[in-house]
Amino acid sequence: MVTTALKLDLPFVEQERLGGPDKTQRLESYGRAECSRFQIAQIEAMAADSGLRLVGKGALNNMRTRFVSIKNKAVRVIESHTCERTFAYLLEFDPGVVGYYVQVPCRGIERTNENGARHVSHATLDFLVFRLDCIELVECKTEAWLEAHEGKDGWHREGDGWTCDPYKQWAEARGLVFRVFVLTEPFANQLRTLEAMYATMDLPLTREELRVAERAIALLAKKPYSIEDMGETLPGFNGRIALSLLAQHKCYGLVQSTPFDLPQHFYLYSDQEQARLADAQAFSALRTTIAQPADLDPLTTASATDLKFALKRYEIVQRIEAGLEKGSVRMRKLVANVREAVSQGKPALSACLTQYAKSGNRESRLDPMQQECMTWVIRALWNRGKVRTRKNLWFELEKECQRHHVVTPSRETLNYYLRQDDATKRALAAGGMRAYQAARPISDPTLRSGKAIGYGHTLHIDSSQFDGRCGKQVEEAFSGNKPWFYIGIDEAIEKPMAKAIYFGKACTNGVALLMRDFVRRHGFLPFVIVLDRGSENDSKWLQAFCLEKGITLIQSPTGGSRFNGQAESAIKRINENVAHDLPGSTKPDQKGRKVDGKYKSEKTARLTFHVLNQALEDYAFKDMPETPTDDDYSPDDRMDEAMSRYGVMGRPQVLDDDYLIKTSVDIKFTGKATEKRGIKLASGIFTSKPLSILLRRFQPEEVRQDCENGSLLFVKIGGTWVKAFLNAILTLASQSVEERLFDHCWAPYARRNGRKRAQDSDRKRYHRHQEAEARAEAAAAQAVVDAKQGSEQQDTEAPDEDFDALDAWNNCEPLTEED
To answer: Basic and acidic residues composition bias: which ranges (predicted)?
Structure first.
């Protein structure tokens, strides 16, 4: 079978982009699954086209996740940070999985409609999994979604699980095994434990920790231990070692049911089946605890009216049983009912309950046509945002009712029906995703994804301009642009980890500055970054950076600030406690005309930048870590506890040249670099001796601008990286990071102001030359006029010089013949 498969002209699977199993591994899987030539071609096409769909673009509640897969050595873009990410973690830990693809296109899925008609459609399923014994096509769904769609489009229960008949039939026709992965709620404990286990795969244990782990395995072979008991029995054992053992399948635990940060309740087992049974029992108890009340006693749900009359009736029953009253036939029947209820172990009062609260008109006051008109205007006009106000909607209801010749319901009735409708439908239609997120109700705590377990594992990033109420001087100091700041918050301990401040347009440099500041402060990188979908957060540079550093990137829905609540809350606190209290420095401006405007604006901006940066530094890294929350725990307290249990859950990173290059954003350089002129950019000419030598034979392949130092470029040329500098490099190299960053941010404004001043100078010179030329032309014209006028006057007033000669001629004697 493998030989036959090798002769096929199969679709090309781009290994560099997709990673995963190579062609040989896939062909071996086809051989074990006994796939036909047609089936192999179909599956190869699915793998080749996987991951091309842009996921989560219009998602309302899902967080798009760029999951860095160790098994596939590539990124897997999934549209759910809960359901699909949980399944991805399970695949990473499964030794029977060779590799997998996500967002797999499935073309030509047939369904039969209710009217018996054949319907063919295309679908994109979540996972195509290559296992050692089979090839699976997997769709991931939550338990709540499946229960809501049971019986629709072929979804139904099958044994202990679920299936979808159209997908199953399509998969079987291609030699695939269709499976539905069901994420049972609540899922936060399982997701966060798997997440921490996955991080330990890149954090190897030390020699001492390995010795402790071996002794722990020997102890678990005798009996189960909780993490706390194991730590007391075996000094040196902690949660970090437990996570590593769980990830390597050297022991098993209550992953689904018990929070890992409760070491006294999280038990470890050496036997997988025993751990599975214990986990299932604990998970069942957990679901019972958080389940909504069901099969309640009637007394519990009785209204106040019914309970009031039940007490009166029970008093009558007691008097009848005591022989004080004879009682009517109806009351004697009630006595019998009370005795029967008591014999069944029910409260006697429950048999005396009335149903007065259910009395009255329970049907709608509207006739069917009025209800139809009401439903239509709400569904077609209100929920689609075609009507602006409720009053206008009532006018439309009037028109609709008049058209159907029925009485128009009152505005109060219309408002009653609107209150019963889902407000998010209109919010989405009228205001888009941001309005939807604002109108969306708060989520159920049992359905949330929870918090990261370890310190340094997950970083929440968000950015904001300093609040406009911080004073107009701040905005004026930065040439009309309010400064931006980025903040990074650790999810587990809610502590600020890094910050960045700059001014100008929002750009990718802000994230690069933050990641450089993070490593400068802590010496490691997080495993997961959570941020919003701003344009600067969706750059190719950030995606490449996270792939190279093994960071999973999770992006919240558009306008979904609650998904990134920790960073959003920190930004609000910073604006309230820093920005509003700093009106900006105006000391240079107070000198008025005594200081040139050029120096005044730069000095003001530099001083204001320093003041804001220092205030943000003090508040974020001194005040916030020491401020306790409602549980009287500060972020520093949480960090100490997390460090004692798990250590640092981040990947070690050195602030070396390689990292400086990685945190420098690439720029578009389309010109030609030469040995003589170097690399010419808007900010100047960059060159260095190594670059000049390489430019004799090569052209730059990639050019990156350092995010902190505007006089430094990193140039990839001839397969190596070299630095290139501006003339000001020696001066800037002696400055602090903050000073270099200010000069880098101020440089565009300086160039713009320089161009404007040069233009003003050119304008003055141009007009001056124009005026001089006009004066010269006027003077020349005046000289001509003056000369002409002088000549005419001379011709008129001067005597004729020939008159004397004429008189002499007349006085001359005539000539004789002798003469």
So the answer is: 757-776
Do the Cβ atoms of 63 and 554 come closer than 8 Å? yes
**Token digits of residue 379:** 């569904």
Q: Are residues 467 and 562 in the same domain?
A: yes
What's the DSSP call for residue 682? T
User: Which residues 6+ apart lie within 8 Å of 674 measured at CB?
Assistant: 695
- Name the residue type at position 343: S
Longest dimension (CA), the chain: 202
- Give the contacts of 137 (CB within 8 A, at least 6 positions apart): 104, 106, 125, 127, 128, 129, 167, 171, 176, 177, 178, 179
- Are 159 and 307 part of one and the same domain? no
Range of the domain at 335: 303-356
Span 765-778, pLDDT tens digits: 999 999 999 999 88
Phi, psi of 742, rounded to the nearest 5 degrees: -60, -45
Q: Say which residues have a Cβ less than 8 Å from residue 411's Cβ, sequence separation at least 6.
A: 390, 391, 394
| Secondary structure E strands in 184-314 | 225-226, 252-253, 267-269
Based on the domain organization, do 246 and 377 belong to the same domain? no
Domain-terminating residue out of 183, 211, 243: 183
Structural contact between residues 217 and 224, judged by C-beta atoms closer than 8 angstroms: no
The pLDDT tens digits of the residues spanning 385-414 come to 899 899 999 999 999 999 999 999 999 999
Burial of 162 (0-12, 13-18, 19+ CB in 10 A): buried
Q: With 0-12 CB in 10 A as exposed, 13-18 as middle and 19+ as buried, what is 163?
A: middle
The count of structural domains within the chain is 6
Determine phi and psi for 318, rounding to 5 degrees.
-65, -40
* 638-679 residue pLDDT tens: 999 999 999 999 999 999 999 999 999 888 888 889 888 899
- Helices and strands of the chain, counted as H and E runs: 31, 24
Within this chain, do residues 281 and 407 fall inside the same structural domain, yes or no?
Answer: no
Cα–Cα distance measured from residue 541 to residue 536, given in angstroms and rounded to the nearest whole number: 9
Give the pLDDT confidence score for residue 114 in this predicted structure: 77
317 and 345 together in one domain = yes
Query: Which of 46-50, 190-194, 251-255, 594-598 has the lowest average pLDDT?
Result: 594-598
Cβ neighbours of 670 (radius 10 Å): 4
Q: CATH no. for residue 469?
A: 3.30.420.10
195 contacts 243 by C-beta, under 8 angstroms:
no
For the residues of 62-85, what is the DSSP string, one character each? --EEEEEETTTTEEEEES-TTHHH
Note the helical H segments in 503-623.
Answer: 509-522, 540-548, 565-577, 597-618
| 677 occurs within a structural domain | yes
User: What are the backbone dihedrals phi and psi of residue 432, each rounded to the nearest 5 degrees, phi first?
Assistant: 80, -165
Asked whether residue 451 falls in the same domain as residue 592, the answer is yes
In a domain, 478, yes or no: yes
Domain shared by 417 and 454, yes or no: no
Within a domain: 339: yes
DSSP 3-state assignment of 99?
Answer: strand
> With contact defined as beta carbons under 8 Å apart, do 133 and 96 qualify?
yes
Contact between residue 198 and residue 247 where contact means Cβ atoms under 8 Å apart: yes
- Report the CATH number that the domain containing residue 380 is assigned in CATH: 1.10.10
* Rounded Cα distance, 656 and 430, in Å: 50
In this structure, are 85 and 173 located in the same domain? yes
- The model's pTM is 0.83
Give a yes or no: residue 736 inside a domain: yes
